[in-house]
Amino acid sequence: MVQVSLPLVRGQWRIKIGVKDFYHNFTCKVRRRQGVGPHIQFVGGDALSSSNFVKKLGNYPQERTQPGYYSDGTYTTTAFLFELANEQARNFWRVFSQKYQEEPMTTSALYYDAAKVILDAIKRLEPEEMATLEKKRQQVKDNLWQLSRLVDAVEGVTGDLYFDENGDMIKSIPIGIYKNGRAIVAAYQFQQLSSVQNIDELLSKMLNNQIIHSNGKFMSRARVVYAGIDFNEISEINFRKFIYSADFFLWFRFKGDFDDDNIEFVNMLNPETPL
Fold first, then answer.
1. pLDDT in the model for residue 12
2. What DSSP string runs through 115-144?
3. Which of 18, 69, 89, 107 could join 62 via S-S bond, C-beta 3.0 to 4.6 A?
4. 154-198 per-position pLDDT tens digit
5. pLDDT of residue 36 exceeding 60
């Protein structure tokens, strides 16, 4: 199944690829992207973010010689991206890599969180000596249904874990884009909002697509900004007071405009010192 949508803007088309023909037809379509021009965008589901997709394209000489020859510029949804993750996810990535000597895949984090939710439900079982196995299973199921609010959520590698009334996990869907043969975070993401009651100028933001409404949910448009520090020198180290002086370059990588006037180091010895 291949669908061609109406133009998003003049001269630009987006091709949506279904999962049914993924490994055969989509690979063929991507192989021909060099001939269709930059005005064609390929967009697909989370199957495109799997390692099998990259391996499949790796069968062709051009992709092996130049990673991304066919895949670069392809957008894909994915269940999770470590680049957008919290501190717990970074710790998971570090421990997993050290133990197994390879980087964890998205499914590694998802399976870990699934086990964590089940363990939480089991730990909250009421102690009943005469309870049957069937009754204990029902208690586990009931405990899972109690994870219906953000305040009750289990903190997981992929974020806060809780469910809606249909039993679906409430999460934003990260968008990736292929670059040099691997999926990285797209420059713009949409993050689900728990409420819009306290948002100023809601109508204006919706008209400007800063906030969108889809499937009964509101999502805000967020821009991804990469930040890093290149140290030139670290001096005047005081181990007793845990302070030091540093000379460094602070860099940001982003798309569009960026306001760098309000950069704040929360652990500076003297926050009033101009940077």
1. 47
2. HHHHHHHHHT----TT--HHHHHHHHHHHH
3. 69
4. 999 988 899 888 888 888 888 888 888 888 888 888 887 777 777
5. no
Q: What confidence tier does 274 reach under pLDDT thresholds 50, 70, 90?
A: low
- Residue 54 has which token pair? 């990259």
Burial class of residue 9 (count of CB atoms within 10 Å of its CB; 0-12, 13-18, 19+): exposed
Instruction: Classify 170 in phi/psi space as left (phi over 0), alpha (psi -120 to 50) or beta.
Output: beta
**CA gap 262, 275 in Å, rounded:** 10
Q: Which residue ranges form the domains of the chain, and what is each CATH number?
A: 2-79+171-186 (3.40.50.2300), 85-161 (3.40.50.2300), 191-221 (no CATH), 225-275 (no CATH)
